[in-house]
Amino acid sequence: MPREVLLIEPNYRNKYPPMGLMKISTYYKQRGDHVRFYKGDLKKFAADLLCEELIRLLFGIAPEMKWRRLIPTLFTYIRYGKTADIPEEIIRKNESTSDDADMLIDLIREYRIKFKKKDFFTNPRFDIVCVTTLFTFEWAITIDTINYVKQLCKDPKKVFIGGIAASIIPKEVVRETDIVPIEGILDRPGMLDSDSDVVIDILPLDYSILNEIDYKYPTSDAYFAYMTRGCPNKCKFCAVPTLEPKYQNYIQLRQQLEAAQARFGEQRNLMLLDNNVLASECYDQIIDEIVACGFGKGATYIPTNPYDIAYNNLVDGINDRAYIRVMVELYDTLLSKCSNHKICKDLSVRDELYKRIMDADCDQIHTATKDAIFDLHEFIAPLYKKYAYRPVARQRIVDFNQGIDGRKITFENMKKLAQINIRPVRIAFDSWKEHHIYERAVRTAAAAGLTDLSNYMLYNYDEEPVDLYRRMKLSVDLCEELQVTIFSFPMKYHPIDDPKWFRNRDFIGKKWSKKYVRAVQAVLTSTHGKIGRGKQFFEAAFGADEAEFHEIMMMPEALIIRRFEHDQAKRERFDRVADYIDACDNITDEWRVAFYALNDHQKEIANPIIHKNRFADEDIAVDDPAVSNVLRFYQIRRPD
Predict the structure, then answer these.
(1) 199-222 residue pLDDT tens
(2) Can you say whether the dihedral through the CA atoms of 509, 511, 513, 517 is positive or negative?
(3) I need a labelling partner for 272 at 20 to 30 A (CA). Which of 100, 280, 308, 368 fits?
(4) Rg for the chain (alpha carbons), in Å?
(5) Helices marked H in 360-499 — which ranges?
(6) Closest CA to 354 of 363, 345, 346
(7) Cβ count within 10 A of residue 492
(8) What are the φ/ψ torsions at residue 319 (nearest 5 degrees)?
């Protein structure tokens, strides 16, 4: 008998889809089980489960009613129940159900009571529940999710927790959930079912589950894969040695891509999550295979018709829940295209399309059915191909998104890397102590023809704030000199294995302060979180030299964010006077005069208060009038 399997990703914001759950979905479907993926509001999910159950019962009593049209109303009543007469309104206005009206009303109200009493916990639907975890800075929502969804499983022993946090601090997971997690990757047979000889980690990804949820991952239209596993380095701030302790030199790519393409169509980009590809003894083979798979330098592709993919997967019964959603979205896209006179000259096409979709009840996800979609196919398929599908060649890119090891960069391996359509080349730059390595790596990559570069810069760790400035400035200077593009992304360090900081995001490094951290974040607010090419842009953001950088770090936050509005000197220096004629003042200049007028004794009073970054009246209550005057500037509210 097929088992009911629930796959859960906690409702945090993340860039990449859960590859582990995508492989697990493939595994259970190969065993004939029913798989469901969810990411979102868990109370909404519980109400959805009850609403689905209710709809089935309502159809059994009154099959002539269009119950699917009433799903939003029934869902709202089940979850909130604010309008007590909603069930009666629904039933009484439909004369065809008058004989069964009382029964229907009672049934609907019963499901509101079931939600209030959490019947979905006392009568759980799922045989297996799998929850993935990310980093511990998402600890609160992760633990809350596990403790909620474990109650949706019939057997507590069939609740499986895995992923990054579960592997890094398994004892803490046990302490907070009473569930022993699976550590590391699913690289051995029998890890989920004792009778299975399947190694889940090598299974193809089930991309279809991503269409079951409302959340849209920022990185999409891509193949996700590994060509190596692990990393031989043992950086103390890194979780990879725990997650993937054994380094694998090579994992075949072609088979992964062909499996995805056959079922889900050709994807545009290739996202490789290898942690240290340059450490592989099979590096040349890896690059050659990437080229052979269609991602060589200058590579393009023509996307598969998404209508054909969705329809064929519905025909094959791959994932009805997902592809009914996709088809409704495609109908909406087609209607939009047919409403554009530049695309469709004959608006009667739009009118007929709209009528047919409405008559089939396929205008909404909750009303559309597989059979209705099949009935519409002969009419809609040629229209979608004519008006909505654009078989135009598009450029592809490859991204080793975990970066490459600057210490292992040579001209030879960069020339090899330049054979693929990689953009950007990510080179780690986590410490100023490594600036010689980083600079050599950038120069080598540029000499090999790789001109789109990127890095993540760790801060709030074990270096002074000025070392972050030096790293950023070096990247900007290299951009100017080598005529390359380098985007730097400063990333705040936060402990991932210390329970003290799991629910508290306020960790401050020994050489940092709350003020320094907030100042960096304030600047990054203005630069959209990244530092790119352009010396003037960088100097306006972080300062022209180390002294000016330190001044910005000590500046009131509101004055950092609205620097040109409040700083006459900067408006003149960066030729921005004309931009702020109607909205400007000289508050920053006033702060600067007051701040630098403090003597050493007064600075000993002011600086500790500033570094704590708390500026309520009681926090800045001091006897010295000059210090008090300076601290008042820090009470200026930052813009929302």
Answers:
(1) 999 999 999 999 999 999 999 899
(2) negative
(3) 308
(4) 29
(5) 370-387, 411-417, 435-447, 465-482
(6) 363
(7) 18
(8) -165, 85
